[in-house]
Structures are given as structure tokens and as C-alpha cells.
Amino acid sequence: AAVKTGLADDPAASDLKDLDEARKLITALAGLVTAAAPEVSSTHAAPLRDGLRSVQLAFREASAVPDAPGQGPGEKWTGPVS
């Protein structure tokens, strides 16, 4: 999801940027992290949520058309990200 959002370190990775694919991957990750949270302790869930939030924010920055609050990728599962 990070590569598809444009967060890759490699300058050549800009060719891999695909926000439609990133939206799908972020939504899937949000569902996975949210579903797994009760099974893992908050010690393990917190870094996963932080990483997911970073990718969600990067998506918002990379998107030319902003989503309404709570309507961005994965926000159905995580709540609004700002």
C-alpha cells in the first residue's frame, strides 16, 4: 500500500504509484488490523494502527480529489483520519 501511495524510497518507484490499488490495499489492511486487534495485545496492535494511519494520511496527501472525512480508504474500519 505504501509503494502504491508513492512512499517508496526508490525514485524509480514513482512508476508504481496507483491510488486505486492503494485504496483497496489500505481498506483491506484496515479490516485486518481491526479484526486482529482483540486477538493481539494493545502492545502489538498500536504499532500496526500507527503504520496504517501513516499510509492513510499519505493517501490523502497524494490524492488529487480529497475524500470527505470518514470516507477515505479504510476509514470505515478505523474512523476518520486527520
UniProtKB/TrEMBL annotation:
Pfam families: DUF1844. InterPro entries: DUF1844 (IPR014995). Residues 63-82 are annotated as: Disordered. It comes from the Bacteria. This is DUF1844 domain-containing protein.
